[in-house]
Sequence to fold (130 residues):
Amino acid sequence: MTIEPDAAAGVRHVFVRGLTLQARLGVYAHEKIQSQRVVIGVDLAVRDPHAPSAEGPDELSRVVDYGVVAETVRRIACAGHVRLAETLAERIALAMLADVRVLRVRVSIEKPDVLPDVTSVGVVVERTRF
Fold:
């Protein structure tokens, strides 16, 4: 399932893609000691109270700030060693749902330097507000 904007349902799509950072992620001994390149993507379905028929105020405070999303992801990913990409993705997803405007979140975690003949490996998780 993709996260798409839906004016009739009052939902907008906010995303941060290709956030590349160094993190300690993995189950192997060398991954616990040395950080590696990790690429993270976040897609959010966000409540849009002005859709479908109005334009909201041109104010940052009324929207989910993708700069704050990126900073939150950086803080979580760099907080310390995490064994599983799934766990990292779940932590990020739950942090995004802390904003009550976020209805659904999809997080991708990619490790591009793990296998020499593969572009990247990783996981995608999705969480929904109930």
